[in-house]
Amino acid sequence: MRTEYATGTLMKESIPLERLGYGIANWNRAEAQSKMMQLYSEFQDRIELIISNNDDMALGVIDAYDKIAISKDNRPLIYGIDGTKVGLRAVEQGNLRATVYNDGRGQAKSTLSTGFFSLLPGKKQKEKKAEFEKNHSTTLFEGDEKKIMQNFFGRRGKGF
Predict the structure, then answer these.
(1) Average pLDDT of span 101-130
(2) 3 and 17 in contact (C-beta within 8 Å)?
(3) CA distance 91 to 93
(4) Can you tell me the distance from the alpha carbon of 90 to that of 92, in angstroms, rounded to the nearest whole number?
(5) Helices (H) and strands (E) in the chain, counts
(6) Which of 100, 107, 153, 155 has its CA 20 to 30 A from that of 146?
């Protein structure tokens, strides 16, 4: 689902996109490295963008590029998802273009609330759902990644 959403969003924004390949790495860094080695042998410098469905797989892609000795400047744009500490470090080091924070607690709260609302009778269900939606929203942000990372980890001015 993450892949379809990401690629669908790019296409909706009229960004030209051609999917050269696709690999399943089971959320695993080593498997992602292996898959990337295979994809690189087939497509080499035609690869311009890699969207990994979690940070570990994105780091596996970076490991593959390290192993085949492709400099950072000659690599495609590599993105991860989850906003893990190692993913954010990779962004800080310039290896990973970006990572998207995956709010597990917020998702769990939304899921449980939705399940709870479905158990309520008709009118009460609509009222509680409207109240929940009024008080919860999804926000996107952009800006100084280093400052965002420092605020996220509560380490203002310190390295990771």
Answers:
(1) 68
(2) no
(3) 5
(4) 5
(5) 7, 3
(6) 107
